[in-house]
Amino acid sequence: MDKLVKRVEKWAEEKGILSSGTPERQLIKSLEELHETMEATYEGDFDEMVDGCGDTLVTLIIYARLIDSSAYECLEAALNVIEKRTGKMIKGTFVKSTEGE
């Protein structure tokens, strides 16, 4: 995975995204890619689902760099929180417990 992240970061650097891009514009790009992935999912188009998931990951790796972080740092921060969560599956989605439950 590390090699893939480095390849994404190198590509983004070569394209000028890391020097001229903004976190806000990168998030818009992430939402566009996520929307395409959602459409592919509803259409049952596996190849487009895989492509969309990959495209979304690329945009988020770049976003992490634009906010002076890394994909690893962001993922670790999220996992440190969600690993401790309790909850249950409701209609195919994990719903975290609220305080007091």
Question: How are the SSEs placed, and which strands pair?
Answer:
Layout lengths: L1 H13 L2 H4 L2 H21 L2 H21 L4 H12 L4 E4 L2 E4 L5
Antiparallel strand pairs: 1-2
Helix pairs in contact: 1-4, 3-4
Rg, nearest Å: 16 Å
CATH topology-level fold name: Helix Hairpins
Biggest sheet character:
2 strands, antiparallel
Summed over residues and divided by their number, the pLDDT gives a mean of 93
List the helices and strands in order: HHHHHEE
- Which structural class is indicated by helix and strand composition? mainly alpha
Q: Which term fits the overall shape?
A: globular
Uncertain stretches of 5 or more adjacent residues: none
Task: Report strand order across the widest sheet.
Answer: 1-2
Please report the first level of CATH classification, the CATH class. Answer: Mainly Alpha
Helix content: over 70%
Number of strands: 2
Number of domains: 1
User: N-to-C terminal Cα separation, in Å?
Assistant: 37 Å
Tally of helical segments? 5
Q: Report the CATH architecture.
A: Orthogonal Bundle
Beta-strand level of the residues, as a percent range? 5-15%
Any overview of this molecule?
- With 101 residues, the chain is mostly helical.
- The chain has a single domain (2-96), classed as Helix Hairpins (Orthogonal Bundle).
- 70% of the residues lie in helices and 8% in strands.
- It has helices spanning 2-14, 17-20, 23-43, 46-66, 71-82; strands at residues 87-90, 93-96.
- A two-stranded antiparallel sheet has the order 1-2.
- Strand 1 and strand 2 form a beta hairpin.
- It starts with a helix and ends in a 5-residue tail after the last strand.
